[in-house]
Specification:
It contains 9 helices and 7 strands. The chain is α+β, with helices and mostly antiparallel strands.
Amino acid sequence: MAWSLTTLLVALATGVGLLAGKHFAEPDVVMLYLLVVVVAATRFGRGPALLASAMAVLAYDFFFVTPNFTFAVADERHLVTFATLFIVGLSISALATAARRAARKANTEELRSSLLSSVSHDLRTPLAAITGAATTLRDRANDLQQGQRDELVGAICDEAERLERLVSNLLDMSRLQSGVLEVKRDWVPLEEVVGAALSQLERQLDRRPVKTALPPDLPLVPVDPILLEQVFCNLLDNAARYSPSGTPITICARSLEGVVEVTVDDEGPGLEPGSEARVFEKFYRGKVSSPGAGLGLAICRGVVEVHGGTLVAGRAPAGGARFTITLPLVGQPPAVPRELQETSP
């Protein structure tokens, strides 16, 4: 694509120069070609910039240097112009390449710093809780009542699961960024995926009502059930952390033309105005302080997008946050065996 666009830009510059005719002097045409080289270098890289330089020299010689429409050169002074045009193109491409490398390095360092500052805190928190609870069980086992021991064991399990989700999110984000996340699609009932996510978060949602509105005639969805389960786990965990304890979380789904739409609502304070797109950025947490590395929603959108769907954030009717997943129904679901059709109610 970059090579084709570069060729198109050189052709466009040549056309402008020819159409301008008497209004353009030869130096104006040279500057027009230099502009093309700058655009190619800054937008597409060194290779397209070198192509633009070479094509600019050839086009300038063929169309604008007498004798026209031939590569012969009557005035040897034009050879200096050709060399200058090509050398300037080389210099610009080298400078643009160096600038992009510096920008990538700065971005990498920024991401690394954000990751370390975020993850180091979020890893220490569950590890400290696990260590504290385990140490208490080890050193004071005989002094603790059964209820206290059960509470400490529950805390260890909760923090271990939290740590597991954090590490899983980090691995998923790494696979998403490298483009190696493997999607194993299967036609599955959406209620099974939602049920698996609810079971996984059973302790976190113990004192919180979860309402589901999943129609019985909802079609099967062609997804990777494990990845989609992780999406619902992250959305439910996010809803639990950002809404008051005891308030409900609602999951609704409906079938539209060619897609299945799922919404996850909470009754918390809702999203900050203008943050509906930013909440999906890596390490973004907003003004409300909450544990987490700020990766969950970014991973949710990435997973949904590799399925060809969309994930958007908005405001729920009750005033909290709403996350809407749209999954395309691509392909044909497996046929139901005749014996199952005959025995179905």
